[in-house]
Write a structure and sequence with these properties.
Elements lengths: L13 H20 L3 E2 L5 E3 H9 L3 H5 L2 E4 L5 E4 L4 H10 L9 E10 L11 E10 L4 H17 L6 E6 L3 H15 L8 H9 L10 H6 L12 H16 L5 E2 L11 E8 L8 E7 L3 H4 L7 E7 H10 L12 E5 L5 H13 L4 E3 L6 H10 L4 E5 L1 H6 L2 E5 L5 E4 L1 H13 L1
Parallel strand pairs: 1-5, 7-8, 12-13, 12-14
Antiparallel strand pairs: 2-4, 3-4, 5-6, 6-11, 7-9, 9-10, 10-11, 14-15, 15-16
The chain binds adenosine monophosphate.
The site of adenosine monophosphate has 15 residues, from strand 6, strand 10, strand 11 and helix 11.
Length: 421
């Protein structure tokens, strides 16, 4: 048996979970202050949801899904992203018939079979938001503002926000035509994947990461020039709203999402200097998605942030200090006859919301004091013969070394008072 986690997965050990929890807390506070509510969807779905909801022509669907048959021979897939599941839930529970927009957020593991490297895993974690039921460009701006506010709150201010508009199916039709005319003469020099993409959806050639493909199509027409009046106006409003909110962005003609249900605003945030996988998050509008999955027309916009990438950025930039885990109070026993007494005190002070612990390995009195220090205890309650005989507790302040004698009634209040100072 191999005692090793599968390639591309990682344990998040307690030394690191404190960092995760801190980031998650900051993110959650922001999501809730922007009126988002948490949704929890299954970790696996019917494979066809992703085939339709992410798109047959994408790398995710064609190469990266963890797909398996269950015992009833149903094809299921570990979710590679969160948007399709949200759209499915919106349709399944007829949420579109209620108060709009619906603002949901999710957090959890995603699964993609890709080549692991720093910042790229097969199981990774995303926090994502989806707002369904409004096509307002101000909602696009708000969504982007939320994403950059989260980064700023984490201390990640050195980001680059890339922004583009991929138009609507109408303007994309004429763009597609001009792209076909541009790429046709050089199509044989494209990589095998792109040759296929060119047949299926030429916009996806622009997404290719192979440098030779970029060279072959250099000077290609940009989608911005093909935008229809409405899409041009939508994009202009998003840009102005961002500028008015002091959000810097880079208009990026190369940022395209080739699938039909992606519409208008597309964005991606990079943090330069964290390695090849510098995108910490991305998102956009997907007005055609709910309909493509069999629901009504319901515009939507969202983004997803990669948790591992955020942590990588914080660590690389030296911002990754975690909060010291540990306890406020440690109970030190001078004799194991006092175990029952110690348990009673622990129960009492923990109920009062005080973080507390004791030794369970038979350490000597001196070793218990050392252990209390390691746990970061500010106070130690000493229980020895004298204390038990005379019915009081000795409370030792580990910083000032001061000791107080307290009775049972005074204990919790005194601890709280000292902790507050
Ligand atoms: P996407 O769903 O591809 O738009 O990705 C959104 C974000 O998720 C990216 O910007 C990354 O931060 C993160 N992400 C995507 N794929 C991976 C992966 N394989 N490993 C770690 N993070 C990822």
């Amino acid at each position: 048996m191999q005692v090793k986690a599968p390639r591309g997965t990682a344990d998040i050990l307690p030394g690191n979970t404190a960092k995760w929890q801190k980031i998650e807390r900051i993110i959650k506070e922001h999501l809730e202050s922007f009126a988002y509510q948490e949704v929890r969807t299954p970790v696996f779905e019917h494979t066809e949801l992703f085939q339709h909801g992410v798109g047959q022509g994408t790398d995710i669907v064609s190469k990266e899904m963890y797909t398996f048959n269950d015992r009833s021979k149903r094809s299921l897939t570990l979710r590679p992203e969160g948007t399709a599941s949200c759209a499915r839930a919106i349709i399944e529970h007829s949420i579109y018939g209620g108060v709009l927009p619906v603002k949901w957020y999710y957090t959890g593991p995603m699964f993609r079979y890709d080549r692991p490297q720093a910042g790229r895993y097969r199981q990774f974690h995303q926090v994502g938001v989806e707002a369904f039921g409004s096509n307002s460009p101000y909602l696009d701006a708000e969504t982007i503002i939320l994403m950059v506010e989260i980064l700023s709150a984490l201390g990640l201010t050195a980001y680059e926000l890339h922004l583009n508009s991929v138009g609507c199916p109408v303007c994309r039709q004429s763009y597609r035509q001009s792209l076909i005319e541009h790429i046709s003469p050089v199509k044989d020099s494209l990589c095998p994947d792109c040759q296929l993409r060119f047949q299926q959806n030429p916009l996806r050639v622009l997404d290719c990461k192979v440098a030779a493909c970029h060279e072959a199509i250099v000077g290609y027409p940009v989608i911005h020039d093909s935008l229809c009046v409405e899409c041009r106006e939508h994009y202009a409003i998003v840009r102005t709203a961002l500028t008015d909110s002091n959000v810097d962005y880079i208009h990026d003609d190369q940022l395209v999402r080739g699938l039909d249900y992606y519409t208008n605003t597309a964005f991606e945030i990079h943090i330069p200097g964290i390695g090849a996988q510098s995108a910490v998050g991305g998102g956009g509008r997907y007005n055609g998605l709910v309909q493509a999955l069999g629901g009504p027309y319901l515009p939507g916009i969202g983004f997803a942030l990669g948790m591992e990438r955020l942590l990588l950025a914080l660590d690389t930039l030296g911002l990754g200090e975690s909060e010291a885990p540990g306890v406020d109070v440690f109970i030190a026993l001078m004799n194991d006859r006092f175990e029952t007494q110690a348990l009673k005190i622990l129960n009492k002070i923990r109920k009062a919301g005080i973080r507390a612990d004791k030794d369970y390995t038979g350490r000597s009195g001196k070793a218990q004091m050392k252990y209390a220090d390691r746990l970061g205890a500010k106070l130690v309650i000493l229980i020895g013969d004298e204390e038990i005989e005379q019915g009081f507790y000795t409370l030792r302040n580990m910083q000032t070394k001061e000791q107080l004698q307290l009775d049972n009634e005074q204990l919790v209040d005194s601890i709280k008072q000292i902790m507050a100072n």
